[in-house]
Amino acid sequence: GRPRSRWIRSLGREDQVVEWFKGYQLPPRMTAEAFAALPLTIRVRELRYAVNRPGVRVRSVTLVTTLHDPVVYPADALAELYQSRWRVETNPAHLKTTLGMDVPRCQTEAGVRREMVMYAVVYNLVRVVMWEAARRQGVRPDRISFVVALRWLASAPPGTPLTVFVVNPVRRPRIEPRCKKRRAKKYPYMTRPRRVLREEILQQALAP
């Protein structure tokens, strides 16, 4: 029945600094040692902004952050940054899907580590190309397509001057259904080594 926060000061309309109190119960998936190491209180900034976008169910968002200074971090800038978080979620998708890092090819731990390092090197090279192209063309780096930069990097001979890339338009916030487009195949999962399954197929074919 005790309050879980204490008001500290106001930073503006629907913008305030409060002090959160540590809970009494041990959260699941946290050890007692880690829970005991947490501070008893933490000061955070709570700001609320309205969402006036057709098709979006949420009408207001309460953003919690440790960036307390309203001059260095204005509320409008924080709201815009939070709304652009989907780009942070799509960037790892370039590593897993575009570059094909979702399924490692190596069979040993050392080989997988080298494979991860090479994926990181290629990913950073593509980002450097995007940054340089955006600087020359006077746009933000996220306006340059990752796929286009990857294709140029893979096909351009050494010493080729950087070409002019197509600048993507400013994309409106996406509204997409959370469902899979493609149907799953009706085959069982490979839970045993391939050689064992091959041997079973051969035995079935040679059986009288």
Give an overview in words.
The chain is α+β, with helices and mostly antiparallel strands. 38% of the residues lie in helices and 15% in strands. It has six helices and four strands. Strands 1-2-3-4 form a four-stranded antiparallel sheet, covered by helices on one side. A hairpin with a 2-residue loop joins strand 1 (5-12) and strand 2 (15-21). Helix 4 (109-137) crosses helix 5 (146-155). It starts with a strand and ends with a helix.
Topology:
Layout: E1 5-12, E2 15-21, H1 32-37, E3 41-50, E4 60-65, H2 75-83, H3 86-98, H4 109-137, H5 146-155, H6 194-206
Q: Into which percentage range does the β-strand content fall?
A: 5-15%
How many distinct beta strands?
4
Poorly predicted parts:
none
Question: What is the typical, i.e. mean, pLDDT?
Answer: 86
Helix content: 25-40%
Defining traits:
single chain; 208 residues; alpha+beta; 4-stranded antiparallel β-sheet; 6 helices
